[in-house]
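Researcher: Structure prediction, please.
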Amino acid sequence: MKTTSFLCVLALFGGLLAAEDGDSGAQVQVRRVALFKNGHNWVELSATLPDAACVRLMGLPGALLGTIWWDSASGVRQLEGSSIERVVYAKGYDYADLLAANAGKQVRISLKGDGKLEGKVLAQQEQGTTEGSFLQGQEIVNPDAPKIILVQTGDGVRSVAAEEVTGVDFDETPQLPVKKVESNIVTAMLEKPNPGAEFRFGYVSNGMSWLPEYSLELGEKDTAKLTCRANIINEMAEMKDVELQLVSGFPSLGEAMVASPLNRALKLQEFLTRLGILTEERVTSRLARRNTYNLVAAPCVAESDDSGAGLSGEEGSKQVEDLFYYSLPHFSCERGKSILRELFSCEVPYSHVYTCRVPNQSMLENLSRRGEPVADVWHCVRLTNIGKQAWSTGIVTCTVGGELAARSTLYFAAPGTETLLRLNKSLQTTVQCSEVPVKREERKIPGKRNDSATVSTFRGAITLRNSSDREMELRVIKEVTGLVIEADREGKINVSPRYSGNPSSVIEWKFTMKAGESVGLNYSYEYEND
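Model: Predicted structure follows.
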């Protein structure tokens, strides 16, 4: 397609392109964006079609491979992607660039040390072409080479190093330096002109992201106030009165690294390489990309009033399959800006709980000495989501009586479920562990060498002491390499399948420890020696 003139420079969103060769331009408007945490988003756009069968669409963000869909009722039968070359003013130019752009003009140059030079700027000589040689398509540049300016004076041709120039004066208005850049254009081809019709389409793009922030004020009556705010980062497009949906969940995006060929941002070979077609590790690379770009998120939903301010109600909550949506209608944000918006605030019940995880015997041997504490006890709060909207995973600032108590992570909690929030390590609770062998015997084990193995039985004891002046609800988890055969105080035993050697076992105790009390937990397990 032949290209002639432009009214102004195309931007990512909001450019104007002159109609040419029978084409007409249509400005695209963003209508709705479903925004994921990892920077990918579903964008819905629309444009009012002019009286033309060939319409250039301006203001399109980059689409991902295979995600473009549109309403065929508008009469659009296909979209075409192409690229054009245009001239723009260069940024960050120096005196050498300015003089090169004004070759043939009279100039007065000021030099370091009060030197002066007057004459006509000479054009730089073009380098010989590499066409037809093995260097074709390669630009040979020496970044350390000095920039030299050639000036025709009355005494001959003078050469001046660019770093020696301190000022330049022209007898006439100089031409500012320009450069050539490539722009990508999308053209909609219609079956016939359909003036005034709305062309709606959408696709997966990137350039926007969001993450939640929480504040949690623990009250005195086992009720906390939870406030959620959304950090929205916009590097994709101009947003004006857009319906914004903050999405949480785990959707999978195949080929999330590959842009649509319609964008013309990738040349054919690079496009095929991104797909993995030109590599020997095609399957491996695809799986790696999908694992890396699965959208890791978690949800929130609420409704906004006409001004766009967040409300504390839950009437805007929505779940689609396994995804959760938090809607912000009438959302506006300039490209390149970030916005912090309050999403909801609610009262939630909570209770205190202390957790402790004691590692298996090999870890204990490496990490502890006899008589020293073997594990940390963490003070946590158990929060119950009694609302209708899920809580997204995010950073939370916890306060008690207005004082900072913790800076932690609030993990996902669906409506009607609980989540544990870790506050601080308890310095008034100690944990000690000891294990001793009580029996060793040879057993016949089918599938083993000589059909037998040595099995040792160990008995272990965990002692916890509460040195504080308050009662503690404890949750203790003990990891064991081997087969747990007994645990007191109603310890819950979970044994993983044994595929080879010793299985992995976990014992979990839940109990309440009074102020100043010491509690002993006993267990035994069998370990198959190699």
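Model: Residues 282-293 form the longest helix (12 residues).
Researcher: Thanks, that helps.
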